[in-house]
Amino acid sequence: MTPTTLRPPAVAGMFYPADPAILARDVAQFLKGAVSPAPTFSPKAIIVPHAGYIYSGRTAAAAYARIAALKGTITRVVLLGPCHRVAVTGVAIPSATVTHFATPLGDIALDRTALDALLDLSGIVSSDAAHAQEHSLEVQLPFLQTSLGDFQLIPLAVGRTSVDDIAQVLDQLWGGPETLIVISSDLSHFHDYAAANQIDGATVAQIASLQPLTSFDQACGALPINGMIEIARRHGMTIELLERCNSGDTAGDKSRVVGYAAFALYEAAHDGVDAALGHALLVRARNAISAQFHQYPQAEPAHPALAAPGATFVTLTQNGALRGCIGSLEAHRDLEQDVRANALAAALRDPRFLPLSATELAHTRVEVSLLTAPQALQFTDEADALRQLRPMIDGVIFVAGNARSTFLPQVWEQLPEVQQFMAHLKQKAGLPANYWSPAVKLYVYQVQKWKEPEPPDSMH
Known about the structure:
- By secondary structure, this protein is α+β, with helices and mostly antiparallel strands.
- The chain folds into two domains: 6-266, Protocatechuate 4,5-dioxygenase, Chain B (3-Layer(aba) Sandwich), CATH 3.40.830; 275-451, 2-Layer Sandwich (Glycoprotein, Type 4 Pilin).
- The protein has helices at 20-33, 53-67, 112-118, 128-132, 135-138, 141-148, 163-173, 193-208, 222-234, 247-250, 275-292, 335-348, 358-361, 382-388, 418-428, and strands at residues 6-7, 45-48, 76-82, 91-93, 100-103, 106-109, 124-126, 152-158, 179-184, 189-191, 238-246, 257-266, 311-318, 321-327, 365-371, 375-376, 395-400, 403-407, 441-445, 447-451.
- Strands 2, 3, 4, 7, 8, 9, 10, 11 and 12 form a nine-stranded mixed β-sheet that branches. A four-stranded antiparallel β-sheet has the order 14-13-15-20, covered by helices on one side.
């Protein structure tokens, strides 16, 4: 039997209580005090601070309260934090002899199979020294134990490395709903209260719009944060700011503070799962059109995803017949701006239709589709490409020189056969139905979609 080798707690009694009963009580109180309305779907990743609990425990708890309902579902945690004690080139994993990390609340088993497989990637190093005194990872463990119960841990101490290497690690470890990613980072360090608020406000806005950080002065964990941002953009994720403060708000002197923030990141949901986001988008789409006719707008509910980059299509129908459809294939502006602009374009500037009139709006149904980032399809010929397309799931972008067209996944409802679907897609691009060339490129994407109810005064 292989002997158990522990990485013992290094900062118990300093960053958090060493007494198990007191630690359990304190963490439970932080979680109970967290203001956490139930999210419409579950976080895939969280960003949390790693200072002493009296300073940042409240902020961290805002994120951990979001995952407490996933106890029993999440069985593996990928934990990344910056190296503070030991200089490391690359991302450090514990050596093969380490099988558990310990806290006063008990031992946590490492996912040694996943850790050992990481050694095949560039930028991964084995270093017990990097983990021995590192607090950025350790302070998260009691919160994870309390929130999730039993789970396996993949601890990664991030040193000097590239964002691409971090993204590669996250891609390999992504998994499904059983896997949670935790990014550990504080914000600015040792500015006065007013300066810190200004710096951290700008940093939080960058993270909330999924824009990479440019300096370690913004966050000590800028590298793991940027790796997460890179992956979030690739996966079409949304991000929510849960709480922000600094040590001057909790237990510290206001003349020299450290900033903290907690975020949750969500994968693109399947059709209609995020009802709150769908409602927020539909209302904004209709209001954008209504404003052109000076009609009274609906109240617009807030949603954290609206501030992040997003790509939408807005489709208008009347009695089931298309009345306009315009959209974005890639995220190039905030989701809120994108859905408003595309709604207006679908109503007034679709070249296939006359501009929508004020009298038509009442019996026009609005549908919004939120797109994931397009992914290039790899194929050898047209038959190979057609075999890979997934009816009712994939939206497809067709590119041949200057010819370009797309069909949303909804189009499979009218064109369920792949050959027929592709033929019409080519014709939409202005090419013959039987056209093919080795230069053809195809990209696929998926959507979340939401429709308004049928207008009560639809014309029949």
